[in-house]
Design brief:
The chain has 3 helices and 3 strands; from the N terminus they run E-E-E-H-H-H. The chain has helices at about 55-65, 85-95, 100-105, and strands spanning about 5-10, 15-20, 40. The longest helix is centred in the middle third of the chain and has 14 residues, at about 85-95.
Length: about 140
């Protein structure tokens, strides 16, 4: 029976490779295109398209923070941010609270911070309070 494979990536080439799991006596794996070291990302990794530079930048931030894509007992690796704006939100939260970057990056939902205005679903900006006019019929 063949052993399973796991994913490795080369960030400069924006390439992903499936290779056997690392063994006790394995040497460091290198990219066949540029000879740079490959990063072990885990078996639950789905690579972005090579031309999607924003997704590869997001992936680079995750990998440099120590976040990987290993399967858990109940399925995939859990939540991972997909856009740079999601990464920025979580990095700002980590700086404000002192939480480690790797832990903040895998949070699905960020707690509401005190003093920030809540954004309503379907809106891109916070809702503003509009006072009722005294001449409005419902204001009596």
């Amino acid at each position: 029976m063949a052993h399973g494979k796991t994913s490795y990536v080369c960030l400069p080439c924006r390439a992903s490779y499936k290779q056997p799991y690392p063994g006790d006596h394995d040497h460091d794996r290198v990219c066949p295109r540029c000879a740079e070291p490959l990063i072990h990302v885990g078996s639950a990794f789905a690579p972005p398209k090579r031309r999607d530079t924003a997704a590869w930048r997001t992936l680079s931030v995750l990998l440099h923070a120590g976040v990987r894509f290993h399967k858990s007992c109940c399925g995939g690796p859990g939540y991972r941010p997909r856009t740079l704006s999601e990464v920025r939100e979580r990095m700002a939260y980590a700086r404000a609270t002192g939480e480690p970057f790797a832990q903040a990056l895998v949070r699905r939902d960020l707690p509401q911070q005190p003093g920030s205005r809540k954004v309503l679903p379907g809106r891109t900006r916070p809702a503003r309070f509009v006072p009722r006019s005294s001449t409005h019929p419902d204001s009596r």
